[in-house]
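The instructor's notes for this session suggest beginning with a concrete chain rather than abstract definitions. Hand out the sequence below and ask the class to guess, before any prediction is shown, which regions might be ordered.
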Amino acid sequence: MKINIKYSVLIGIFLLIGQVKGQNLFKERMIQVTLHEQDTMLMNFVKTPDLFGERWDTLAQPSFWKLIMKTSPQMGVLNVASTRQVLEVRSLVEWEKLTDEAKEAYRNELRVKHGLAMDTRIFMTNGKSDFFVFEKVFPTISRGVNIFAENETDPWYAQAILMIESPASHSSYSSAGALGPFQLMKSVARNHGLRVDEQVDERKDFDKSAKASAHLLRTSCIPEAKRILNKFGIPVAGEIEYKLWFRLLVMHCYHAGAGNVDGVLTNVVKPTLGDKSIITTIWRSEYGGFKNSSQNYSQLALAALMILDDLILTKCKEIREY
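After discussion, reveal the predicted structure:
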């Protein structure tokens, strides 16, 4: 019994050392906050200085998705398909009363009003505030950030993924079959240490799902993104690994798979520099399995991060640097 206690104590010490090491590794990139309504609780978030410093927040695409995320599902946003320029917000009920001919006539009016070419594609995109319930996911972000840091994985990815992957209901399956707070597919979850069978699905367990997601990013998505860029003579090391454009490329690998990201970069984007232009070009590019939903993923991430910044500023009583 004494031996078991001794070993248990040693294991506990090693785990604690690992947690402290992970936290220290990313501490300079994090902020600690206290909430207005619960000022005894400390929460950790990861800074994204490039979001505003490089003016990602001024781009039409993330601004469009931020609007969609905050718009009621009873409303729709008429927008230019290629640029996501917002033309008008209107009731979906009223829009659906129009015939197809009347809808196209209205689109023509908008083309003339905004000086657009008459063949410009105009989409009606439904509001999705019923899906993106950020108030519900906000309390879980710090927990995810801490688990990623403890597992020596950039915790920025935890908050980005949690903000965009099924925030309204982490128990819901995606159309592709992904499940849980980090929306892992069955095979991916099993490959990264989770039990998924008829009796148990550990993708529903927040902590275990977070560890699996961190492992996936650390051992696959981040190395694969570096490998792909290296093909174009774009090395990623040191601080570049924490640049927003690279993090967004890794997010594309997480969502679409490294093979599809490799395909679109190799055959369409063909980057020559490691910078913001890689991501903005991806938004206009398709190849193989990399299609519209893949293009949108980093736009959604940017929009969600803009909303997270708003939430932190409004909900938090005190913000401290480490």
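Then share the key points. Residues 75-126 form one domain. The longest helix spans residues 2-26.
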